[in-house]
Design a protein that fits this description.
The chain is an alpha+beta fold and 414 residues long. The chain has 8 helices and 12 strands. Strand 2 and strand 3 form a beta hairpin.
C-alpha cells in the first residue's frame, strides 16, 4: 500500500482472518483471538469562492464605452484549491496499489502524472479547482473486478475535499449502478458532487488483458454571495475624548470542524415553567428515550459505513471518528493483520437495530445493545479470489461514551 488513509476496520475482520487462516495470528493475551467472538462471531469548504466583489476599471477616455461586458463570475463553488490537491495524500503518496504518487506533467501545466502513466487532469479558475479528471490505465479488464476503480475514486474524492459522508454516498450509489458500467458509463451523485465513470480507449500503453477508466468529478454547490459590509458612520468631531479600550466581542467565533456529523447538531430541551414542576414526567421520559435511541442508531449506522470501508481498504485512519479506547486499539491491530496477510473483507449490511440501552453515567456513558445482520466475503487481495462468503446475524453490546461533545464506541462484547 502506498499510504494509510481513508478507509477503516471491525473486530470481526481480525477474527475472520484467524478463522479462515489457522495459525495466522497468535496474540499472547488472546485479545485479537476474541475479535470474532466479541462482535458476533468476530466539502472541503468550497472556499466560498475567494472571488472578491466584482470590480471594473475603466480608463478616463472610455467612460461611455459599454460594448465589452465583464465575464460573469462562476455560479458554482470550486472543489478545492490547487495547493490543497497537490498536498493531498492521494497525490503525494498514492491511492490503491498501482495508482500514484503523482508529479507535475512536463507537457501539460494542468495535469499530474505518475510512473504508470495514470493522469490527473484539472480545470482551474485562478487557484481554485473547478473540475478534475482521473484516467487510470492498465486496470483489471474483468468487468466484475471493480475494487481498484472504486477505491481510487474514493481517494480522489477525498483529495478534492469530500467528507466521509459524501464518500459513503458515492460508494452506495456505485454499488447500485456498477452493473451498468459493464455496458458503458455511469453518472452518480454524492451530495453536491457529480461523478461520471466510463471505460477509456485502449492506447499503446494499454497492456494486453487490461482496461482503462476515466473518472470525472465536479461540484454543483452554488456560490453564496457575501453581504456587502455595513457602512461605517463617520466619527463625530464634537467628541474628542479617547475611545475606551475595546472589550471582548460578545459573539463566539465559528469553530472549524473537519468532519461534520449529525451528532454535532445541538439538542434543545424544553425548559419547564415553575407551574409545571408537579406535572407527570412520562412524556419527558419517553422523549429523552427516543432521542437517545435515535442518536445511538445514527452512531451505529455510521460505524457500519466506517467498518465496511476500513476492512475493504485496510486503512485505519478514519477509525478515530467512531472508536476510542480499547475498541480503537483492537480494530487498528485487526487492520494490520489484513495488510500483512494481503486479505480484505467485502461487507454488505443487511439490517441494524438498536434494541435497548443501559445508563452507566447519566448523559456520558451507556451500554447499547444492537442487533446486526450482514454478509461477509473474505477476499485474497492478490488473486481477488473469495475465500469465504457467509451471512451473519448477531447481537453485540457497545460501550458508548460522549467525548468532546460526540459519541464514541470505546468497547464491545457479545
Amino acid at each position: 500500500m502506498h499510504r494509510t488513509s481513508h478507509g477503516l476496520v471491525s473486530k470481526l475482520t481480525a477474527a475472520l482472518v484467524m478463522a479462515t487462516m489457522p495459525g495466522m495470528v497468535m496474540a499472547a493475551d488472546g485479545s485479537l483471538n476474541e475479535l470474532w467472538q466479541n462482535e458476533g462471531a468476530a466539502q472541503q469548504p468550497a472556499k466560498e469562492s475567494a472571488n472578491e466583489n466584482f470590480k471594473l476599471y475603466q480608463p478616463e477616455n472610455a467612460a461611455n464605452s459599454s460594448s465589452e461586458k465583464a465575464e460573469p463570475a462562476s455560479t458554482t463553488a470550486p472543489l478545492c484549491t490547487l495547493g490543497e490537491l497537490k498536498k493531498s495524500d492521494f497525490v503525494s503518496t498514492g491511492g490503491w496499489p498501482g495508482v500514484g504518487p503523482f508529479s507535475q506533467d512536463k507537457e501539460d501545466d494542468n495535469q499530474l502524472v505518475d510512473e504508470a502513466r495514470n493522469t490527473l487532469k484539472y480545470s482551474t479558475a485562478g487557484q481554485d479547482i473547478t473540475e478534475a479528471e482521473l484516467t487510470m490505465v492498465n486496470q483489471p479488464a474483468d468487468k466484475n473486478d471493480l475494487l481498484s476503480l472504486q477505491m481510487n475514486a474514493d481517494f480522489l474524492l477525498e483529495a478534492l475535499g469530500a467528507h466521509d459522508a459524501r464518500i459513503a454516498d458515492f460508494n452506495n450509489a456505485f454499488e447500485n449502478k456498477q452493473q451498468d458500467l459493464k455496458s458503458g458509463s455511469i453518472s452518480l451523485n454524492a451530495g453536491t458532487y457529480d461523478i461520471s465513470i466510463a471505460r477509456g480507449r485502449a492506447t499503446e500503453q494499454t497492456e494486453p488483458g487490461s482496461a482503462s477508466y476515466v473518472i470525472k468529478v465536479r461540484n454543483t454547490r452554488p456560490v453564496i454571495a457575501e453581504k456587502p459590509p455595513e457602512p461605517v458612520a463617520p466619527a463625530q468631531e464634537s467628541e474628542p475624548e479617547k475611545s475606551p479600550e475595546p472589550g471582548p466581542v460578545a459573539s463566539e467565533p465559528a469553530v472549524k470542524k473537519e468532519r461534520p456529523s449529525a451528532l454535532d447538531k445541538p439538542v434543545t430541551l424544553a425548559m419547564k415553567s415553575p407551574s409545571a414542576v408537579t406535572a407527570p414526567q412520562a412524556a419527558d421520559t419517553d422523549a429523552e428515550k427516543n432521542r437517545l435511541i435515535a442518536e445511538f442508531t445514527d452512531l451505529m449506522q455510521r460505524w457500519q459505513l466506517v467498518k465496511k470501508a476500513t476492512v475493504k481498504s485496510r486503512q485505519s485512519t478514519n477509525l478515530t471518528q467512531i472508536l476510542g479506547g480499547k475498541a480503537l486499539s483492537l480494530h487498528t491491530q485487526a487492520v494490520s493483520i489484513l495488510q500483512n496477510k494481503h486479505m480484505y473483507y467485502e461487507i454488505t449490511p443487511r439490517r441494524l437495530k438498536v434494541e435497548s440501552y443501559k445508563e452507566i453515567s447519566p448523559g456520558k456513558k451507556y451500554l447499547v445493545k444492537a442487533h446486526i445482520e450482514e454478509r461477509r466475503q473474505f477476499v485474497n487481495a492478490d488473486t481477488m479470489s473469495i475465500q469465504r462468503d457467509d451471512e451473519h446475524s448477531y447481537n453485540v453490546e457497545y460501550t458508548v461514551e460522549k467525548v468532546r461533545g460526540s459519541w464514541l464506541i470505546t468497547d464491545f462484547s457479545k
